[in-house]
Specification:
Elements: H1 4-25, H2 29-36, H3 38-58
Length: 60
């Protein structure tokens, strides 16, 4: 169901979210906000590459 690439993307999102929360709650608000912006970026890259893979499968 899930490919290894999907798991890696989701793992990256979870790590980024956890680091962001850790920084935020330890008083490093700017660093936490900066790290929080990685979450949607990683998800967008994952969706983009997933769509590229689906497009390549359709044209084979």
């Amino acid at each position: 169901m899930f490919k290894l690439s999907d798991v890696c993307i989701l793992l990256g999102v979870m790590v980024s979210f956890a680091v962001s929360a850790y920084l935020w709650f330890n008083g490093q608000n700017e660093e936490g906000l900066f790290t929080a912006t990685w979450v949607p970026s990683i998800l967008c890259f994952g969706i983009y590459f997933k769509l590229l893979g689906l497009k390549a499968e359709r044209h084979e």
